[in-house]
Amino acid sequence: MKKNSVKHYSPSPQPNPEAGAGVGGLPPERVRAAAAVAGFEAGPDEFDDAVDAPAAAAGLPVTLSLEVDSASHGERLDKLLARHFSEFSRSRLQQWIESGAVRVDGQVRRPRDAVQMGNRIEVQPQAAPEASAFAPEDVPLDVVYEDDTLLVINKPAGLVVHPAAGNWSGTVLNGLLHRDPGAASLPRAGIVHRLDKETSGLMVVARTLTAQTDLVRQLQARTVKRTYIALVWGRTYDEGTIDAPIGRDPRERTRMAIVQTASGKPSRTHFRTLATVPLGRGFVSMVMCKLETGRTHQIRVHFESIGHPLVGDPVYFRATQRGQRPAIRVPLPVPYERQALHAYKLGLVHPATGKHMSWTAQPPEDLQALIDALDFESAQADDEDEAWDEVWEGGEAHWEYAGDDDDDDDGDGDERDA
User: Fold this and answer.
1) Range from 208-212, 251-255, 308-312, 362-366 carrying the lowest mean pLDDT
2) What is its EC number (predicted)?
């Protein structure tokens, strides 16, 4: 590592040019509210899909039929169906047309095709994938701690936290509903923060509405301590702060990026380097990170922005910010297929007792195998973390801060740690 060095990063941002039975026994308004709180990035059609008519949600073999009258002659097929069957969203109806679940005089047609007077249209409703979004499923959860107020889980890599497009089932949320049916009465089944699918580690989940409200308040106040272990490419400073706003990448909407306009939310990551080892023509550093804010992909975006992308990251290893030296990536000593990031320590005030509590979870097998293969013998995360806590709690004036103090820990469902 770079000895005796403390670095405060404020990278130059990239400019931004830019009524039925419900689901799972819940009433439609409850499903809508849960979907909104869960942070689904979806428009009205997608929300409608979760509360399509009871027959469709249940997958019942009900056939709907319609004969085209003179007033509808020449109208687009999808628009006609949306007007006559308003209990279904237009996007869902378009999907059914394209999948062959809609027939016009026995023939499959396209959504944009015009209908003719006298055409007979038959619709076979299909169950929406979102219908399982809030259904209990036997998803194994590694529970580190549990009482009547909260539980702490150690999420494995590969497990999605809550349902979203492409992952409507098999999530932590589904597992929580299976484990405790009472969780259905809570927004997001008690989830108050998230981890990326391929990020492993600790998460806290509320078991009562009072506890959920209190945990959200602690996140807003930035008193929840979230500590991560990450492996990054290159030689990093001994310690530092990365202070740069994060928002949706204007060039690739599936990514996040450093942005300067109103869409960029103030974001701050503190880090300390535990060890650096040589690897081929380059280096790999093990860093301990503490989040002051909780943006989507925060650690991954921040370290990419300073020229030290995470090892194994399939999304954020690319050319770095102007003025930063690109990281050198070389073959790893063992196979490794995800970002090297683990939420290893979590600390908070218990909502019911007021007691300060903390939990740790060692890296999972795949990440530990990589750490061992890279020979990070000198890294002592536990000792470093205890010493660092004194700084974090206000012992020494150690960190520089810059920018606005707003963050995502505001209960809007957009708080995802890494």
Assistant:
1) 251-255
2) 5.4.99.23
Q: Which comes out higher in pLDDT, residue 329 or 183?
A: 183
Q: Distance between CA 41 and CA 167 in Å, rounded?
A: 13
* Total domains present in the chain: 3
Amino acid of residue 174: N
Q: Which residues contact 131 (CB under 8 A, 6 or more apart)?
A: 23, 24, 50, 52, 56, 57, 58, 59
Of the candidates 327, 310, 351, 36, the one whose C-alpha atom is nearest the C-alpha of residue 200 is 310
CA dihedral for 166, 170, 172, 176, sign (positive or negative): positive
Residue 258 amino acid letter:
I
What does the block give as tokens for 105?
A: 């005089």
Residues 408, 219: Cα–Cα separation, whole Å = 9
> What are the residue numbers of the active site?
196
Give the Cα separation of 410 and 265 in Å (integer).
12
Note whether 416 and 297 are within 8 A (CB).
Answer: yes
Phi and psi (nearest 5°) for 388? -70, -30
pTM: 0.68
Q: Is residue 210 located within the same domain as residue 262?
A: no
Strand 341-349, strand 200-206: pairing: parallel
How far apart are alpha carbons 2 and 289 in whole angstroms? 17
Domain range for 109: 64-126
pLDDT confidence of residue 164:
83
Domain boundary among 74, 91, 126: 126
